[in-house]
């Protein structure tokens, strides 16, 4: 029988210097370690907001990380285990920069826009909304120190999921996770990743689905029109 979906570990990253960023801070919080609990809230806009949706979690480059749609990052322990075998090295929870290491939850099957109740229906608390994939960057590659890491991670295509905070509160290890209110458009996090990394057919689906708004929608629509010479349907 499958294990119930739950939080295995809650993780926070402190500011440390890095040579693998172009951010003015010269720091990163990607290397996260387990703590007893997290406090989450909507951090506001990417630029000028609070950064991470997790209180005390460092975001070194707010040009690309943090903000309401990248508030909390989920990654499956099962996928970390796959990479342990692939890389032939131990990978503790938090090493991929995830705030929540999950177990029993098919993170990379999640439909964008779905809600995740943390704590279960008998103890409602935090609610997260699935917002999209993680796009691997040079900081991630430098942190892991694996050859051609961005290419390998992208080829695998199971990136974990960034979430927005729909209802704030505290999250602890062993909290139950319940997915509900799954949108009918059916676009999964890996499909969104493929759209954002060049799949034009999926770009059209994403733009038609309504999952993006504002600047994110405008940027993707402009990219599609520039590459195809036509406006998306």
Structure description:
It is globular, with a radius of gyration of 17 Å. Helix 4 (189-196) crosses helix 5 and helix 5 (200-209) runs antiparallel to helix 6 (214-228). The protein is an alpha+beta fold and 233 residues long. The chain folds into 2 domains: 6-185, M1 Pyruvate Kinase, Domain 3 (Beta Barrel), CATH 2.40.33.20; 198-233, no CATH class. It has helices spanning 77-87, 138-144, 149-156, 189-196, 200-209, 214-228, and strands spanning 6-12, 16-17, 27-28, 33-35, 37-40, 72-76, 100-103, 115-118, 127-133, 161-167, 169-172, 177-180. An 8-stranded mixed beta sheet has the order 4-1-7-6-10-9-8-12. A two-stranded antiparallel ribbon has the order 2-3. It has a two-stranded antiparallel ribbon with strand order 5-11. The N and C termini lie far apart (44 Å).
How would you state the average pLDDT, rounded? 93
Report the uncertain regions: none
* Number of DSSP E strands: 12
CATH homologous superfamily of the largest domain, by name? PK beta-barrel domain-like
Could you say what the CATH architecture of the largest domain is? Beta Barrel
Shape: globular
SSE run:
EEEEEEHEEEHHEEEHHH
CATH topology of the largest domain: M1 Pyruvate Kinase, Domain 3
Structural class: alpha+beta
């Amino acid at each position: 029988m499958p294990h119930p979906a739950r939080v295995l570990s809650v993780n926070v990253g402190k500011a440390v210097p890095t040579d693998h960023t172009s951010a003015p801070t010269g720091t990163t919080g990607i290397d996260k370690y387990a703590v007893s609990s997290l406090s989450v809230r909507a951090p506001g806009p990417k630029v000028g907001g609070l950064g991470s949706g997790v209180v005390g979690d460092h975001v070194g480059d707010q040009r690309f990380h943090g903000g309401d749609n990248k508030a909390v990052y989920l990654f499956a322990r099962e996928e970390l285990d796959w990479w342990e075998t692939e890389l032939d090295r131990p990978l503790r929870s938090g090493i991929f920069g995830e705030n929540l290491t999950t177990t029993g939850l098919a993170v990379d099957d999640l439909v964008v826009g779905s809600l995740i109740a943390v704590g279960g229906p008998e103890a409602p608390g935090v609610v997260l909304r699935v917002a999209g994939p993680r796009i691997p960057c040079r900081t991630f590659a430098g942190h892991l120190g694996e050859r051609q890491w961005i290419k390998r991670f992208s080829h695998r295509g199971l990136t974990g999921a960034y979430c927005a905070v729909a209802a704030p509160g505290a999250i602890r290890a062993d909290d139950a996770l319940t997915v509900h209110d799954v949108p009918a458009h059916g676009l999964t996090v890996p499909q969104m990743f493929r759209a954002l990394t060049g799949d034009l057919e999926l770009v059209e689906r994403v733009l038609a689905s309504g999952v993006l708004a504002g600047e994110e929608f405008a940027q993707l629509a402009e990219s599609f029109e520039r590459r195809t010479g036509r406006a998306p349907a």
